Amino acid sequence: MPEMTTPPSALSNREQIARALDGSDGLLLGVDFDGTLAPIVPDPDDAAITDSARESLVDLAKHPRVTVAAVSGRELSDLVDRVDIDGLVYAGNHGLEIRAGETTFVHPAAARQRAQIRHLSERLRDRLTDFPECTVENKSLTATVHVRGSDHAARVASATETFVAEAENDVRVVPGKCVRELRPAVEWDKGAAMELLAEAASDGYRPLYIGDDTTDEDGFRAVQPDGVAAKVGTVAETGTAADFELREQAAVPRLLDWLSEYADERWTSERHDSPSRQQLRADDLRDTEDEFVVRNE
Ligand SMILES: [Mg+2]
């Protein structure tokens, strides 16, 4: 049973986080985008990383013992455009596509079902023409039906579920806040992506994951018991698997800055001059057990 109570504050318990990281040789930091690096805004198209979050991440990415991964439900190219910091690892579409350096890795099942997702998105658009306020966003490996603000949100959501179920394919519908997501029917989520990155990271690196949403709970669970998980914002009635909370998005850069100071004290103050240095290389991901398809761009 998940705890119904709010976990202790991350910022007030930094000594405890330090103790959790003390035995490690480095840090694998996973951060979600919307609601974590960027404040939640009415139109997801307007979401932008805050200046303070950007500065903190740039700093962390320069540290030789810190690997930073941005992990999001957004399409990879969209996530990369919005964060736009050299040296980071990017995991888009809930980790179905991962970029390290110049190389993009795609989950093989997702790659196979890409055409199906596109086909379903097009047909679903035709099906939903009576609801012009609801849009279907094809994110290549997944698709999102946006129902925010619609008077017919429930009807559109159930029409989407029925349509996909009747289409008899390997696509599943995942409910979210004001959205229905079409995803390939494959066991993969932000937590699986964090586990993959942990396997690819240098030995002795300890993971820390920060996120704000229900899809981040997989990330929280993935870093335990050795790592640290921090939940941003209100904890839902269903509880959270996170060890700590950050009351609001604005508190995220404060934790990141502290992590940066911690890394300096704990390991070395010597930072790499070039921010384009890649801590986790494509070859590290190639060496993992999960066989992703490589997409070169
Ligand atoms: Mg989020």
UniProtKB/TrEMBL annotation:
Residue span of region Disordered: 267-297
The record's annotation in InterPro entries points to: HAD-like_sf, HAD-SF_hydro_IIB, HAD_sf, OTSB-like, Trehalose_PPase
Reaction it catalyzes: alpha,alpha-trehalose 6-phosphate + H2O = alpha,alpha-trehalose + phosphate
Entry's EC annotation? 3.1.3.12
- Record keywords, A-Z: Hydrolase, Magnesium, Metal-binding
Return any one Pfam family short name. Answer: Trehalose_PPase
Biased composition (Basic and acidic residues) is annotated at 267-285
Annotated GO biological process: trehalose biosynthetic process
The answer on whether this UniProt entry bears the keyword Transferase reads: no
Q: Which GO terms describe its molecular function?
A: metal ion binding; trehalose-phosphatase activity
Q: Which cofactor does it need?
A: Mg(2+)
Its annotated pathway reads: Glycan biosynthesis; trehalose biosynthesis
Indicate the family of this protein: Belongs to the trehalose phosphatase family.
What role is this protein assigned?
A: Removes the phosphate from trehalose 6-phosphate to produce free trehalose.
Annotated protein name in UniProt: Trehalose 6-phosphate phosphatase
Q: Give the organism, scientific name.
A: Haloarcula limicola
